[in-house]
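User: Please predict the structure of the protein below. I'd like the answer in structure-token form so I can feed it into my own downstream comparison script.

Assistant: Understood. Taking the following sequence of 385 residues as input:
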Amino acid sequence: MQNHHDSTDERLILDSVDKFLAQEVAPVAWQLEHDDTYPIEIVERMKEMGLFGCLIDPQYGGLGLSTSTYVKIIEHMSRVWMSISGIINSHLIMAVCVQKFGTQAQKDEFLPRFATGELRGGIALTEPDCGTDLQAVRTLAKKVDDHYIINGNKMWVSNGIEGNCFALLVKTDPKAEPRHRGMSLFLAQKGPGFEVSRKLEKLGYKGIDSAELVFQDYRVSADHLIGGAEGRGLQMILGGLELGRINVAARGVGLAQAALDESVKYAQIRKTFGKPIAEHQAIQLKLGDMATRTEAARLLTHKAAESFDRGERCDMEAGMAKLFATEAALENSMQAMRIHGGYGYSKEYLVERLYRDAPLLVIGEGTNELQRIIIAKQLIERNPA
């Protein structure tokens, strides 16, 4: 259980995040989102608040928050504008990989600069023809003396344009069997041979830069191989993706809650047949389901975060939270649009953005089809006949 001190700290942190969201994000989010403009000033404030160091140990200058507190921050952010939660999420997956698996020298060099946001970025995993099956990556790193030469392409890299450092998944031994033994993870800072080829245009999730990255004879020092040993890249990143899935679940909760909030408000203002639509049973049934879905998603997400904090294996719990919370966001955004009628389809209301943002969540960080398979495999493994 959380002690009293923890819960007081958490309340203070969430209060300051809420204040920041209300004063500095809510008034500008609509315009930035519709123009697909990177929120430079918001990011600077997030740096000042220490949010890039949320999960980094205080000895390296981070806030050292629990995952449980972190998911609440993400949920609150996503209620206002989901895109800004992605700006810290990908970055923190990279930071947690270094914190968990990096050499002491790597921790000393990188974590303090990650915590301030001076170095920030994300994870470069997916490739043009490889998403869910990460073992199929083709980006190749060849060792030459005290460095590696890297060639290949990465797709859908969050923070790809504005960021400057990435956890880059490569093959160091393409012939290795099983394939994951040939995979390694590097800290790649921008420099010669590291090009951003283009910004990817998206249905929703605007404002954050999703990019294609191209590596042509890019040189990276051997001491930037995370953990200092080849062949462990996939295991490292899978631990990071558990955190990523819990984060995406928290975004789903925030989005589902925003859709519910907007609907509850609108249903009391809008009148048809002489009374507010909130008094019509058809609308009440929708609101009842939306509220229940949101709360169930929240509890699953908090459970997964607590399990992650205890250091337990939680791919099943993270998978369940991610699956349920993101489907809740998708369903609630659709129901919110129905409750709003014609206004839900208008760009002037928040609902249409929620409707565009939600599909990303069921696809990103491992599709929901994959989550169902992970859950089933874990069920069988944990309950042998």
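That's the full token string. The CA atoms of residues 146 and 222 lie 5 Å apart.
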